[in-house]
Design brief:
Number of helices: 11
Strand content: 15-25%
Shape: globular
CATH class of one domain: Alpha Beta
Bound molecules: pyridoxal-5'-phosphate
Largest sheet: 7 strands, mixed
Order of helices and strands: EEEHHHEHEHEHEHEEEHHEEHEEH
Distance between the termini: 42 Å
Length: about 375
């Protein structure tokens, strides 16, 4: 049977991976500056992570959400400790798009309204409501287009208030650092303005931290560069370091009731232990600090090369050139054996490495760039 051919593939077959390196079936070693799309947070095959998952497998890997699973509460406590939040509740699911679906659904339940405000160049996933709030018509089917969504430009203060005043908006959803869109960021002042206005007009503010969360930006959540309190925070990717885990953090003013949300796989034993292990490693190895200190090292090094502009925060970075980068990315993979990411901005390379990366690895990339350009 053929595979449904929807991905554009590099001709590389990874068979093992260790920390910041991936190895293919011919024994080639690749420096991973892509992290499998910002997923690998604490490094490939981290021994603590692998050990914990193996020993959990020996005990119990899964049971449904019809019984108690204390690991879910351990995970909730640890997220709370890392993010230093007050009064949030955790609901677990298994992917980024699923976290967005649940966030939007909950906002609509809570406010009893149904229009959503999203932003130009946003990416929130490919399922029903998630793709409807994603600014890419090509991946939205007629079914998805039935949703009621208004797209505004980032930092459009005036229209945000005009739209919210209409009184029918259940949620404003935003990325503090746009991922797939190409690392643009709303102004901090605009983020605070959204928070204020949402509170004023009875609309939920959803911070999409699927890509930027779990310390990648140099804060636990990227929105925490600003003093706001979103109603719902979405998470996935780095949360599981490759194990499919997602979740939403829900402000305590939104009350649960039995059956309001639910999923079979969300919060299973293996998913919880994977994410608990990630949080332990982030803390023990001080990886959030590493992400923020490498940001300045990366930016200074690139600035001194004078070849392109750097965008983003922490280890969620974009290099914007004045030409299309697809050939450059191919050369990086096939000649220099370095993985990087693309974005909807064709002139931009994304840098999303494991947070365990160090200066010596980044220097390998800088040398490779100098060589190719
Ligand atoms: C900001 C953001 N939200 C949501 C998603 C969707 O996540 P997933 O691919 O796990 O469904 C992505 C994926 O890239 C993302 O970057």
């Amino acid at each position: 049977m053929k595979l449904f051919d929807v991905y554009s593939l590099f001709d590389v077959t990874p068979v093992k991976a260790k920390d910041v390196y991936v190895y293919d079936d011919a024994g080639n070693k690749y420096l991973d500056l892509y992290g499998g799309h910002a997923v690998i947070s604490v490094g490939h095959s981290h021994p603590h992570y692998v050990e914990n998952i193996k020993s959990q497998l020996d005990k119990i890997s899964f049971y449904s959400n019809s019984v108690k699973n204390p690991l879910q509460s351990v995970l909730a406590e640890k997220i709370n400790e890392h993010a230093d939040l007050k009064d949030y509740q955790l609901f677990l699911c298994s992917s980024g798009a699923e976290s967005i679906e649940n966030a939007l659904k909950l906002a609509s339940f809570h406010t009893n309204k149904k229009r959503v405000i999203a932003f130009k160049n946003s990416f929130h996933g490919r399922t029903s409501a998630a793709v409807a709030v994603t600014d890419n018509h090509k991946i939205s089917s007629p079914l998805n287009k039935q949703q009621n969504v208004t797209f505004l430009k980032l930092n459009d203060y005036e229209n945000l208030e005009i739209e919210l005043k209409k009184g029918d908006v259940c949620a404003v959803i935003f990325e503090t650092i746009q991922g797939v869109g190409g690392l643009d960021m709303p102004k901090g002042d605009f983020i605070c303005y959204m928070d204020r206005l949402c509170k004023q007009y009875g609309t939920c503010l959803i911070a999409d931290e699927v890509q930027s969360g779990f310390s990648r930006s140099g804060k636990f959540f990227a929105y925490q560069f600003n003093n706001i309190e979103p109603d719902i925070i979405t998470m996935a990717k780095g949360m599981g370091n490759g194990f499919p885990v997602g979740g939403i953090l829900i402000n305590s003013k939104i009350k649960p009731s039995v059956g309001l949300l639910g999923t079979t796989y969300g919060g299973n034993h293996l998913a919880c232990i994977a994410s608990i292990s990630v949080l332990d490693i982030l803390k023990n190895q001080n990886l959030q600090k590493n992400a923020s200190s490498l940001e300045s090292y990366f930016k200074n090094s690139i600035d001194s090369m004078n070849i392109c502009k750097v965008k983003g925060k922490g280890l969620m970075l974009g290099l914007e050139f004045d030409f299309e980068v697809s050939e450059l990315r191919k050369k990086l993979v096939y000649e220099k054996r370095i993985f990087t990411g693309s974005s909807s901005n064709k002139n931009l390379i994304r840098i999303l490495p494991p947070l365990t990366i160090s200066k010596k690895h980044l220097n390998i990339f800088f040398d490779a760039l100098k060589d190719i350009l």
